[in-house]
Amino acid sequence: MDVIFAFIQGAIGQGVTILFGATGEIVTEKSGNLNLGIPGIMYMGGIAGLMGAFFYEKSTPEPSAVMGLIVSLLTCLAVSFAGGLIYCVLTVTLRANQNVVGLALTTFGTGFANFFGGSISKIAGGVGQISVATTASAYRARIPGLSKIPIIGKAIFNYGILTYLSIIIAVIVTLVILKTRTGLHLVAVGESPATADAAGINVNRYKYVATLIGSMIAGMGGLYFVMDYLGGTWSNNGFGDRGWLAVALVILALWNPANAIWGSLLFGALYILYIYIPGLSRANQELVKMSPYLVTILVLVLTSKRNKPENQPPGSLGRSYFREER
Q: Do residues 14 and 242 lie in contact, with contact meaning Cβ atoms separated by under 8 Å?
């Protein structure tokens, strides 16, 4: 039983980061923007939150866990917003190639995070010495009382605030997209910006807002990984390929954040499955860790054959909109 609980909790721990990234990318892609810079933005959000907490705790004799949480969250959102703004200016305003800008942003974001992570390590006294335990304790705090309930408490209520927030955000985004006028306008922009523009919808505004909100949501995935999963520490390149798993999950979820909730749990489980399979060589471990991508490819093939409109990507995904060509 303990092994099962450990596996479930490990899958959820891996899945939360992926869910934040996938939800943010779904919001972005619904506007027609394909932001392959999401992995880099997740890196940027994680290191920004850690830096905010580090300098707050360093400058305060008796730091407050709650205040550290607020500072780190705001810093994370601000830097993630900046990453999304860079993408928007280059692709929406200047109409640069979205794939090139996204990949460049991921490279920049990874380098940005590793550079400042190394710099803070030197300030803290050496590699691996960064620790914002006070702030991390607020992120990792469990629900009082409920987490002590036998079996149910351990399975459902034994997680930090960002775990529940990732699900709440995914549900809210789903409702906004499917049930509100704003969501319908967003879908219209992603499907056919020329038609939406002719109907009086401000295409560029929707692309900007969706991409900026999506970037901030994705950045929180990096914040979760650093503050909750790692307990307020930093390791260069420690984020691995979780950002790309988030992008892959968008396809598995069929561009629906509600589907991304269970999809993130599946990806999280597949990502750590190799730990629970005895006798695997290092090469076979890497093969098992590839399984989320294989599942995504399978889903992509099946949905392409069925050709249902609701299961397809937005019609203008990855293409810049030129109003004069309307």
A: yes
